[in-house]
Design brief:
The complex is a heterodimer of chains A (106) and B (575). By secondary structure, chain A is mostly helical. Chain A has three helices and no strands. Classes of the chains: A mainly alpha (106), B mainly alpha (575).
Amino acid sequence: MSVETLYALAACALVGIGLYGMIVQPHPLRKLIAFNIMGTGVFVLFGALAKRGAAAGLVADPVPQALLITAIVVAFAATAVTVALLLRLVESTDTASLADEPPAGR
Amino acid sequence: MDLWASTYGGGLLAAAVLLPFVAMLLGLCLDGRWLQRVAFVTMALGLALALGIAASWANTSGPLVYLLGGWSPPLGIALRADGPAVAMLLAVAGVVCAIGLYARADFGTPAGQKESRSAFAYWLLLLAVWGALNLVFVSGDLFTLYVALELLTFAGVPLVCLAGSGETLRAALRYMLFALCGSVLYLLGAVLLYGGYGTLDIPLLAAAVQPEPIARAALALMTVGLLAKTALFPLHIWLPPAHGGAPAAASAVLSALVIKGSWFLVLRLWFDAMPGVATAATAQLLAALGAAAIVVGSVVALRQQRLKLLVAYSTVAQIGYLFLLFPMAFDAAGGMGFSALAQSAGLLQAIAHATAKAGMFMAAGLVYAALGHDRIDDLAGMAKAMPVAVAAFLVGGLALMGVLPSGAYLAKKLLLASADESGQWWWTLVLQGGAAFTAGYVVLIAVRVFRRPAAPLRLQPVSMLSQGAALGLALASLGLSLAAALGPLPAELLSKALSIEELGTMLATFAAGALLAAGLARRPLFDRGAATDAPARGGPGVWFEHGDRLLRQWPAAMLALLSVAAASGWLLVRG
């Protein structure tokens, strides 16, 4: 098994773990961490593709690294915004629950 | 036609993207009063830029292209504007200007008054949404589009919680987390495409892409990620609380503009980036979800107690219409024979919805500001008390129904013609029946506002400018097909507009809408002076409400996301 395949399999596992966490974890902070795990899986996959040289036929393709660093910055910004929202939510309601408001009309 | 060299006027594209962001950064250094002035100057300049882009596009035979830094793809990044992009740029510029005029009353900082934080944030975010949308429309590669989408989400989410209450913060957080999930799926698809074809530039990719497993997986993942951000049923978990809870000026931005960004990207993927990969069966799935959205969204809208939530659920339903164009792009043989026609219809529908829905949210906001509440059961007498705002709401509703000569009417005609030619009679039923569902909540509100009030209404004064902006947008939507018929679209579609047949269809739509409203609404259509706290009626409407509430639970929505991804992947593979 080549290194790239190993990395790609690891990426699959990370995306799977992240998705599972996204579905079952009720706490928003855990959901956010699950999102980050999922994102990391995508980044690892991109790294493995860069090592393979993609379709350009290069020994190691440099373009994915430029894209990757941008994607990491975007994911970081997303995490920061979400944490800020979560902090405000806890401040104003003393809970961090995402549960829906009580059904209308009661 | 050279897609890889800057064209005359291409620089305008870069300017259209930069202008709102430069204004936003400038505004960060200023105080709220100056920020508002900067925003208005930017709106004037941005509108002029959009007109300039349209003019130079009309004078060129092909898309406008601008190569950033003079580097050509695949290494460089190109900005391109084709017909759909130019149409959306223009429409967004117009709607942003109207929303800006409306928001002056809510978020303006009059002389001698202390500036407020939410007003400062509002103008910054409005500019950011505009810049991000312009980038979505003109980006020529899938990775820049990813960044643009994220910018759009980051600008849209804080708009939800401008009021800062716990409920709106929760809505914003749900929106953010679900949208992030969608963007990871989109990025995963983009990474797979890069791995398969070594480029993300749209024309290069379109030339290289083959209908093979990697492209299919990528298309399924990216489409579903974008559906989550567009809130197509059953992925509308975040939309009603977010759009219903935000201030009206922000709801108008979110509902009219923000969701169009990710929808536009689905069009780009299906028709420009991977035209040979999409299949007719997958298109049927998208349109089936759209049809479900129309039915569920409209019925739940009828069951709402608050006007703004009714408009939010109407958005859920109208998003469904935006996805009916996909099967119409395919001819009877399964090829993309009608893609240009279907795209025009979709764009018309999107622009009609953007203008009408912004007007309706503004009208709902004005009613709230004047009455101090927006309970639908207590709207009696509003037609007399606030004729302009009520007219804006009803005209917007009529425009959405597809009453002549609205943009939605022409869009429906185009789609019906395409459905006839490709032999997909079932979508004819959906297109005709969908209007009746829209008519349902328009009739309901019309009946409520024209009733005589039990006690004289005590109203707060509201800005005439805001009312004018709302009515202007609604009228723009109602007159859109006249503008479109002067342009590139076949004018013969409007020629039979006043025939007996058309009038009959319209009357039947109203009658069906009235029946739906009478049968499914929370209260009987004509209940004179019933107490507001009387128990709501049950019946089939309640089942829709329960189903909607169930689907908007987080695990259910995530499982729906995965199922839609799996189903579209399977349909793509099966061909």
